[in-house]
Specification:
Oligomer: single chain
CATH class of the largest domain: Alpha Beta
Shape: elongated
Helix content: 40-55%
Distance between the termini: 18 Å
Structural class: alpha/beta
CATH architecture of the largest domain: 3-Layer(aba) Sandwich
Order of helices and strands: EHEHEHEHEHEEHHEHHEEHEHEHEHHH
Strand order of the largest sheet: 3-2-1-4-5-6-7
Number of strands: 13
CATH topology of the largest domain: Rossmann fold
Number of domains: 2
CATH superfamily of the largest domain: Glycogen Phosphorylase B
Radius of gyration: 21 Å
Number of helices: 15
Largest sheet: 7 strands, parallel
Length: 364
């Protein structure tokens, strides 16, 4: 079997694709895997680093407003479809798996033209145009949550990296805290805002460092590349550790008792899978997607939410210490959140891919 994965641009598309590739390889080391991406996406670094073949096609962003780009869109889309079809033909693809993003739409259309089975995975609460079209070309549609509206949708969750999906937070806590220079015996707050950090979160934390450490709360704060001066590391009896980026998030999750973070789709899925209580600060821009991502965990009692505009140092000082001091509440939040977690989403999606490739389970 040869599988072509289409989903480049952001980590939200690339990470589930790589987790799915890993699951396919675990069950069949001989499976062929080619990832499709663009010159400017994160996949150009991440896919080869994970040992998978990467083929590049032109990005075809769809204009959100009337502009001159609309005039050239048909020609650009035809070129991308032709390039994607060449990859499918050369690899003798048995199935295409799309995760949304710039490369998915031309790949879906090329697969349809070549009668290659299609699998669609949608991680976001509001599906993008590529996956809305792709879902009409197949009956193999996987979604991250039951609330996502797409034809033929099956709830599988979001494929997560194995180190997170198999994490035992309690068993790894002491070693994880030691790895970051944290004490083993103090309540621990994990703060992060994505690979680039989050200005609002960083600003709020800069104004509350002294209050948190005075309350005996240690902090691991991923401030984002280039933001190292936003919040300074404090080394003392109660550490405040500021790092640009956390490469091994499973260690950060294991070290923490509570997270303060954005509400991207993968972040919400990982927080639920590992059962980490969270305070979400949804990104205020765009279509309100992050608030929708956080809603199921909030409704279940596994997370709280604070609006971006309301997050200040004062808010953190008023709410975080009391929550971290309430062990029973944290335990209840962890248990309720974990009930929504899907640790086996990679395996479930891999099963759907195999069914589609074999022409079973309701494919066209």
């Amino acid at each position: 079997m040869h599988v072509v994965l289409a989903g480049g641009g952001t980590a939200g598309h690339v990470a589930p694709a790589l987790a799915t590739a890993d699951a396919l390889r675990r069950s069949d080391p001989a499976v062929g895997i080619t990832a499709l991406g663009t010159e400017r996406g994160l996949e150009k670094q991440l896919v080869p680093a994970h040992g998978y073949e990467l083929a590049l096609i032109p990005a075809v962003p769809l204009p959100r407003r009337p502009s001159g780009d609309l005039l050239t869109l048909p020609a650009r889309l035809r070129t991308a479809i032709r390039n994607a079809a060449e990859v499918l033909h050369a690899s003798v693809a048995d199935v295409v798996v799309g995760f949304g993003g710039y490369v998915s739409l031309p790949t879906y259309l090329a697969a349809r033209r070549l009668s290659v089975p299609i699998v669609v995975h949608e991680a976001n609460s509001i599906p993008g145009l590529a996956n809305r079209i792709g879902a009409r070309l197949t009956r193999h549609v996987a979604v991250a949550s039951p609330q996502i509206r797409l034809p033929h949708a099956t709830h599988v969750g979001i494929p997560l990296r194995r180190s997170v999906a198999t994490l035992d937070r309690a068993a790894e806590r002491a070693a994880a805290r030691a790895a970051f220079g944290l004490r083993p015996d103090l309540p621990t707050l994990l703060v992060f805002g994505g690979s680039q950090g989050a200005r609002r979160i960083n600003t709020a934390m800069a104004g509350v460092v002294a209050a948190l450490t005075a309350a005996g709360i240690q902090v691991l704060h991923a401030v984002g590349a280039g933001n190292e001066s936003a919040v300074a590391t404090v080394v003392g009896d109660v550490p405040y550790v500021a790092v640009p980026y956390v490469e091994r998030m499973e260690l950060a999750y294991a070290a923490a008792d509570l997270a303060l973070c954005r509400a991207g789709a993968i972040t919400c899925a990982e927080i639920a899978a590992v059962g980490l209580p969270a305070i979400f600060v949804p990104l205020p821009h765009g279509n309100g997607e992050q608030r929708l991502n956080a809603r199921p965990l909030m409704a279940a009692g596994g997370a709280l939410l604070v609006d971006d505009a309301a997050l200040t140092g004062t808010w953190v000082a008023e709410h975080v210490p009391s929550l971290l001091a309430d062990g029973a509440r944290l335990a209840a939040m962890s248990e309720k959140g974990a009930l929504l977690g899907r640790r086996d989403a990679d395996e479930r999606l891999a099963q759907m891919v195999r069914r589609a490739a074999a022409g079973t389970g309701g494919s066209w």
